[in-house]
Amino acid sequence: MDINKLIVENNEIKQIEYRSFLQDDVQLLDLKSRISAVWNNVFINRAGYELYIHSAYVDASDSNIITINSHLLNLNDSNELESILDSVPDSVDSALSRNRNYRQFNNKTQIIEIEYTDPTTVTPFTVPENITLRTITQEFDTNYTDQNKKNVYVVGSLSDVNTLVQSINSELSATMPDGYVLSVNDSFKLVFNGASLIECSLSPHDAFPDVDKNLSEAIYHNLLLDKEKIYWTFNLTTNTKSFEIAYTQGSAYPVEPLGKNLLLLMITEEYDENSVNKNIQNVYVQGRLNDVYTWAKSIKSDIALPIPDNLNEPDKIVFEDDGVLAVQEGEFMANDDMDYILFEDDSKMIIREHELIEDEDYFKFTFDSNDELTSVTLYGHVQRQQVRSAKIRREVYDELSLRYSDAITNLSVTETLMPGCSERIVQPKYDTDGYRYADD
After folding, report:
1. CB distance 188 to 154 below 8 Å
2. 3-class secondary structure, 422
């Protein structure tokens, strides 16, 4: 597990992103097991694919606060996807479909629903003429143990379905949320335990098999949201969770007009663990520091910035020796992969050093429920480079560095936050010829 990004706010590291490209990474698997133990195996998706953590953000002040923002499907030796739905054991009733398209894993309650090939043969009631039978499923746990529950999905008006439900169980009724307009694609789910009807619920847009039950109905039916980009934050100390979910690209606009020359990467909304919108919008942008900060200050002139704003500072002489002059630029530069620009001025060679914001760096603007800017955060990519020793011949080291590391006040947290993954961020060192050497 390696450090990949630092999330910086007001000159301090707020979170550290750890990443691994190995599925059996011990530390990331430990994070997965800790989260799964609390939140009922959230790392199996509804299609039954087991997921593992590709990267995780760990809070710099509390390693029990973890944000998962990337999952990858587990592959076996033949590079084929593995799913708990890939094979139905012989013990399952042969009347149930063997087609995987008709078997779904409901992660929220840890059940598998399998559709009957011919639902008309197992319908537990006579279907009225004004009701359409959509499908019938049988419930199993993840070990394919029959839970003795049939789910009957029917289509009809609220009043007609309600009449049907009360004819079977007078203590139940069919209901819908206030103001909800029933769609022709909606169905009602009638749950039978044996021969007894025990539950009736609205199944919007045919919840089986397409709707992901891990999302609330309100979120799922917001067609502007990208259900593939959900960033969960798990607090293992308080056993709470929250999440951000992104809008599909181009479907939403920031609450404030985007600043000049900035690239809009993503817009997200924040929700609490009950899927209630917190009315917080996060706008992720990329661009030159000058343009990013100009936009921030145009919205809120006194906003705290993640790294110092030295745009108006004059160039600084870094070193001068035997005709070599190194000048550090006062302005941060973006999208430039050169450490230095070399040119001659009369008899002296000038090495002009740039502070870079790399292509992988970006900024997060957070707006509250009043559409006011509350914070600007830098997601800074850590550079990993092999560097030669200046003291020992042929000795090389792998060093981590940031162009703006001298602006961070708690840089040492990278060495102590995660046991077994202590990595030091160094300030790059250069000789008078402009070559970098290791921080021995």
Report:
1. yes
2. coil
H or E stretch at 28:
helix 26-38
What digits encode the pLDDT tens for the residues 266-296? 999 999 988 889 999 999 999 888 889 999 9
Give the integer Cα–Cα distance in Å for 426 and 423: 10
Alpha helices in 275-412 (DSSP H): 289-299
State whether residue 151 is helix, strand or coil.
strand
Decide if 351 contacts 325 (C-beta within 8 A).
yes
d(CA 238, CA 64): 9
- The residue whose two tokens read 């007009």 is 257
Spatial distance between the Cα atoms of 227 and 214, rounded to a whole number of angstroms: 11
Distance CA 149, CA 147 (A): 5
Q: Which residues have CB under 8 Å from 300's CB, separation 6+?
A: 372, 373
Amino acid at 390: A
Q: Are 275 and 215 in contact (CB under 8 A)?
A: yes
Q: Per-residue pLDDT tens for 308-330?
A: 876 556 556 555 666 666 555 55
Residue 19 amino acid letter: R
Q: How far apart are CA 240 and CA 63, in angstroms?
A: 14
pLDDT in tens, 367-406: 999 999 999 999 998 888 788 877 776 777 788 888 778 7
- From CA 58, how far away is CA 35, in angstroms rounded? 13
Q: Residue 379's CB: how many other CB atoms inside 10 A? A: 20
Could you give the 3-state DSSP secondary structure of residue 100? helix
- Tell which residue, 47, 382, 6, has the closest CA to residue 214: 47
**How much of the chain is helix, strand and coil, in % rounded to 5?**
15, 45, 45
Q: In this structure, are residues 54 and 29 in contact, taking their beta carbons and an 8 Å threshold?
A: no
